[in-house]
Specification:
globular, about 40% helix, Rossmann fold
Length: about 240
């Protein structure tokens, strides 16, 4: 198992040193300081010649680095928001809300342990071979009008990508899980679970809900954009192909 850890500036040292210390016992990795804005060509060349199973990228004020890497590679990318402003809320949301097709698994600031837990689990022989995906649809999000379309999209992609996918109303401890999260429900803090917050339009139009989502993510786990189930599945597929 080999990874690359990227941060945008030496001034981020107070943040990335902690991340490197947590990662060191679990994986071989290369560390680079590259800015998506100042070192665009170097970053492009690195992505083109990438020799790694995964990338951990620090997400600064605009969270450009994780998205740039994800758009230029086919390996799973983890985004680590830096709490430089607003406790990292801005970086968290920017890393989370990537467009469909550019998946980044994002943890909350200071929650790199969620990434480490995933990397540790995927090195287990059983989980390295596990390719099944369970989409856990909580009863509180089931009535939302867009959930049916999201599930149809997931089934379509799973057929195109030959992914063994099932949809259920419970967590499956023996497979990978994509949990469709309602903000009023307790989340499943397991390393084989990815989290997708589901909201209707009225909820999404309320800025205060971003703080609620941030508070949920601070409890742990890897997260994807609001209603963006597709990125969660695409990210897992990258993991299946890479690990």
């Amino acid at each position: 198992m080999k990874g690359i850890v990227l941060y945008g500036s030496q001034s981020d040292r107070v943040f990335f040193e902690d991340c490197l210390e947590k990662l060191r016992p679990h994986s071989e990795f290369i560390f680079e300081v590259l800015s998506a804005h100042r070192d665009g060509e170097k970053l492009r060349l690195l992505c083109q010649s990438l020799d790694a199973n995964y990338v951990i990228a620090g997400a600064g004020l605009s969270a450009a680095l994780p998205g740039c890497v994800s758009s230029q590679t086919k390996v799973p990318v983890f985004g680590v928001p830096l709490p430089s402003c607003f406790g990292g809320l801005d970086a968290f949301l920017a890393s989370l809300q990537m467009p469909k097709g550019t998946p980044v698994a994002t943890c909350a600031p200071y929650n790199e342990s969620s990434i480490i837990s995933f990397i540790e689990k995927i090195q287990d022989e059983k989980w390295a071979k596990e390719k099944r995906v369970n989409v856990y649809v909580d009863s509180l999000v089931q009535p939302y009008e867009y959930v049916d379309k999201a599930l149809r999209d997931l089934l379509k992609i799973s057929k195109e990508e030959n992914i063994d996918l099932e949809i259920s109303n419970q967590f499956n401890p023996n497979t990978w899980n994509i949990l469709l999260v309602h903000q009023e429900k307790e989340i499943v803090l397991k390393s084989n679970c990815l989290h997708v917050p589901m909201m209707n339009k009225q909820t999404m139009d309320n800025p205060s809900r971003a703080l609620n989502l941030f508070s949920l993510a601070e409890k742990g786990g890897l997260w994807f954009g609001v209603n963006n189930c597709i990125n969660a599945l695409r990210w897992l597929k990258r993991g299946f192909d890479s690990f």
